[in-house]
Amino acid sequence: MGMNFTGLAGPWPLAAGLQLVPLLAALLLMRLRGQPAFGLALLAVTLELGLATALYLHFDPGQAAGVMQFSEHLPLFGALQYHAGVDGMSVLFVLLSAVLGFLSVVFVLFRQLHGTTILAVIMALQATLMSQFLTLDLLWFCLMGMLQVLLTAYLSWRWPTSADVLPALSRYLQFMFTGLLLLLGGTLILGWSHADQQGGGLSFDLFALTRQPVPDSLQELCFFLLFYGLAVRIPLFPLHGWLPDLLMQGSVAIVPISLLGLKVGVYGLLRFVFPILPQAVEKWHFVAAGFAMIGVFYAALLALRSTNLRRLLGYAVISHTGILTVGLFALHPSALKGSLLLALNFGLAISGLLLMTGLVWQRTSTTNLLRLGGMFDHIPLVGVAFLVAGLAIVGMPGTPGFDAVHFVLEGSILSFGATVTIAAALGNLIAAGFLLHSFQRAFMGAPPGNRAIHWNTSPSQLTEKVLAGTVILVTLAVGFYSKPWLELINQPVQGLGALFAAEAPTLPETLPATGAPQP
Fold it and tell me: Is residue 362 part of a domain?
């Protein structure tokens, strides 16, 4: 039995506003440069934060699973329609996107790039991400994903941190468009299957696709097309090869939003694949979790061997995404809850780590760990933010990762047994090793002799303090006060977990993490 989705209109068109504000700002920023451009972009991301906060405050987490609040619907052209709405998962990603959009704009000011069109492209990219987190139409999700990939590629090509960005960019486009073609193929097959069964026109609407079960003959084909299409974006081993090179060569200015784009893959699985194709998900979840587990150790070992901070963090993304994916395919409500919290945690922490790395690069023109050292003497707040974000990645108490890892391991041991769960915990332990080593080498180690003479050793700038302070405050606030986020996602994960009840045994008694009551 699939999930039953219904729409509940809101008093205000908040979903439309969240998409239109960055889009309109992007159009205006095409003509503006310098301080006026930065002022407009800052106004836009502040308004976006306000709209996201209003969405959260007026969202009712007590509504049953499948009730999409603030629903908006408008037929457009043929089978393409605008259909937006939110549940707790959507609200979580919308809030994260708004925060990271703010960080991106501040980083652009620090890099002195606001005299270019980069702010316009970042705002357009923000609009595509918001649209993907809000849409309830699979075809719309695919089209916005294509625009997001093109905008990310343009930013990396136009404002790289390396003169040799083209090979990395070419690999990125090859991977991404292969994934998008697979995703589009699965989407079209689902639409045609629905039309064939209903005897009507094509529909890619989530409500329609879940009301009519997909025939058994197409379940696995559609699952593999959609799964592999989204796995490229997550990125899941062995479809991860584009990420370390792009982080090495591309623009650091788009790190927060581009990394949030990776979480679109996780969101796509939960929003569309799990509810539409539950039988195929249940049949192949062991295989998906197996690839994820291999990726945890493969990427962690490569991170241990990396001497470049940006490449190391790229492998950290892949390794920790593997843990997140194991939680998704445990098909247990606790593990699903943990995976969503991990997506929130990684979005904040990895973006924080890479932004702090970007601040180090701006002062030293290198991210080679063998050429770094002693940065804590010059930018101590940046060092603290790097450490806090690194501890969040490995799930230390007081960070969002602690509750998240607890829930993932709880669900994993029930679904996969002790071996997989212990392996996932060991992978997390390896991460602690390479992240703490990178902090010690870059910030606390001895300066590299004469090379340090050419560094910018001036006192911390305001933009550096704003970026580092925001990363610290948001990470600790979410970590110490996790109850609202658990309540926000409780109903959606319970609804998804009910699809796989046979795969979701329960413990006789469960201890809450960090004292937070379990919904």
Answer: yes
Helix axes 400-415, 380-393, angle to 10 degrees: 20
Q: Given a cut of 70, is residue 55 above it in pLDDT? A: yes
E-strand stretches of 4-103: 6-8, 67-77, 80-86
- Tokens for 285, please give them: 């979840």
pLDDT of residue 512: 42
Give the tens place of pLDDT for each residue, 301-328: 888 888 888 888 888 888 888 888 888 9
Which tokens is 397 given?
């108490």
In the chain, how many domains are there?
Answer: 1
Distance CA 99, CA 467 (A): 11
CA distances from 19 to 82, 94, 480 (A): 12, 10, 30
Residue 362, pLDDT score: 80
In a domain, 295, yes or no: yes
CA distance 90 to 132: 9
Domain ranges, residue 336: 281-507
Q: Is residue 321 part of a domain?
A: yes
- The tokens for 325 are 């994916």
DSSP 8: E
CA distance 213 to 277: 8
**CA 124 to CA 228: how far, in whole Å?**
26
Between 34 and 432, the higher pLDDT residue: 34
Please report, for residues 30, 48, 127, 234, 315, the alpha-carbon distance to residue 34 in angstroms, rounded to integers and kept in the order given: 12, 21, 22, 35, 35
Q: Element (H or E) spanning 12, and its range?
A: none
**Spatial contact of 256 and 100, defined as CB atoms under 8 Å apart:** yes
> Is residue 234, in this structure, part of any structural domain at all?
no
From residue 320, give the alpha-carbon distance in Å to each of 50, 109, 127, 299, 345: 31, 30, 27, 9, 11
Per-residue pLDDT of 138-197, as tens digits, reads 999 999 999 998 988 888 888 777 667 788 888 889 999 999 999 999 999 999 998 888
CB burial class (10 A; 0-12, 13-18, 19+) of residue 293? buried
Separation between Cα atoms, residue 16 and residue 71, nearest integer Å: 10
pLDDT over 90, % of the chain: 29
pLDDT value for 449: 67
